[in-house]
Amino acid sequence: YFQEVQKHSVHTLVFRSLKRTHDMFVADNAKPVPLDEESHKVKMSVKLRTEYGSVLHMPTLKENLREKGGANTGDPYGHKQYSGNEGPELDYMITGTHPYPPGPGVALTADTKIQRMPSESAAQALAVALPPSQSRLDANRTAAGVGEIYRHAGMAERSQPPGVTMAVMEAGGNKNSALMAKKAPTMPKPQWHPPWKLYRVISGHLGWVRCIAVEPGNQWFVTGSADRTIKIWDLASGKLKLSLTGHISTVRGVIVSARSPYLFSCGEDKQVKCWDLEYNKVIRHYHGHLSAVYGLDLHPTIDVLVTCSRDSTARIWDVRTKASVHTLSGHTNAVATVKCQAAEPQVITGSSHDTTIRLWDLVAGKTRVTLTNHKKSVRAVILHPRHYTFASGSPDNIKQWKFPDGNFIQNLSGHNAIINTLAVNSDGVLVSGADNGTMHLWDWRTGYNFQRVHAAVQPGSLDSESGIFACIFDQSESRLLTAEADKTIKVYREDETATEETHPISWKPEIIKRKRF
């Protein structure tokens, strides 16, 4: 037996529901509690002291006081406000600038002198930014601690995060410093460097000159070329001393050992050779690379040779035993450049196609850090001779990095070409040489480009044969040698007649935009 459900009209059901709802919420609990003036005052006072305590003593501009209704020096929360022209904190009188003449070379007389008076708002701003008065400095100097300084400044002592305390109390207790707008960092003025000028062109190779090295004694230098020869030249006169043949393809790298009378070379024939310069003969071959060898470097303190190749690897060789100690694998394309140093990381490689730079652990034979910031091929890496930093060259930017972790320092922008080579001297002159024959000279510290050079090609060469494949400073760092596509070696030196007056720095303190990419 089912009891029949009583049927109601929709109208009845809706109104019954409304009544139920009304009964349920008749107390109206959602309404806020009426504001208690005393509690609100305490709450706001605590908030003011916590968040704005360090600036509550600051003077209030007259304009603000007028807007708030006259010179009311108090606020509802019990904190005294000082007007712009009163109060113990400001004991300065701002009268304007010193008299000055209207232009350079004009004598300062009663008729010519100019003196500007500051506007009221400017005077107020200046007063706020002025250093603390002597009495405040003396009191702060003898204060027992931060708490004492706070009490002297008219603020209750309280615990604060150390950062807040230091920000307020920096500059000898000058609380105004916390409010001063921080200026955007600007590029410091670059060091002046004399311009470099071409003074000798050496010819003798029959192909592109691909690599260059200066021997430690600074008597001669060596070049490797696409004509498959290695030539040794007298540095002082530029005369050819010796030609070495043995490679069967382009010679891509040469270096002279400072520890032994050996010259090392590598080339596109996959060969790495060690030449004994007492007999001018090859005494060792280092076999292992599967493709063209693009670069090599010697470790400065141990008998280790490092080579890099188109087979995507770099290899560590024991100079004496010819053994391959490590094969540094990790790059995904040709490795264009390699550098060694005594400090960690001891090996740095740059890949021309996978656009990365790797810093290697020499002992373990593994990558320490991979830098992926470059967006285009990295063909050149150079280590600064004095600083623990290095630079890498790519068509997108020249980037500077800090060892040991490869922290980014800054971009050197403006050399919009394929950068084949970089060189730097102890003076902080960085040179970048490009595929289109242009050479830019930079101030290492600031990244300021102080000179651009585009030397004419050798007579009889095409303009398209203007290209710089390698550059290096000699041991005295007074000469710069470049290996070029017009089959010549060009030698530059500093212009001794130049001064800072004849060649001023056209520099503006622009805001630094140090982007990571």
From TrEMBL:
It comes from the Eukaryota. One of its GO terms (cellular component) is precatalytic spliceosome. InterPro entries: Prp46/PLRG1-like (IPR045241), WD40/YVTN_repeat-like_dom_sf (IPR015943), WD40_PAC1 (IPR020472), WD40_repeat_CS (IPR019775), WD40_repeat_dom_sf (IPR036322), WD40_rpt (IPR001680). Gene3D superfamilies: YVTN repeat-like/Quinoprotein amine dehydrogenase. WD repeats lie at residues 202-243, 244-285, 286-327, 328-370, 412-452. One of its GO terms (biological process) is mRNA splicing, via spliceosome. Keywords: Repeat, WD repeat. Belongs to the WD repeat PRL1/PRL2 family. Identified in the spliceosome C complex. Component of the PRP19-CDC5L splicing complex composed of a core complex comprising a homotetramer of PRPF19, CDC5L, PLRG1 and BCAS2, and at least three less stably associated proteins CTNNBL1, CWC15 and HSPA8. Interacts (via its WD40 repeat domain) directly with CDC5L (via its C-terminal); the interaction is required for mRNA splicing but not for spliceosome assembly. Component of the minor spliceosome, which splices U12-type introns. Within this complex, interacts with CRIPT. Also interacts directly in the complex with BCAS2 and PRPF19. Involved in pre-mRNA splicing as component of the spliceosome. Component of the PRP19-CDC5L complex that forms an integral part of the spliceosome and is required for activating pre-mRNA splicing. As a component of the minor spliceosome, involved in the splicing of U12-type introns in pre-mRNAs. This is Pleiotropic regulator 1. The gene is Plrg1.
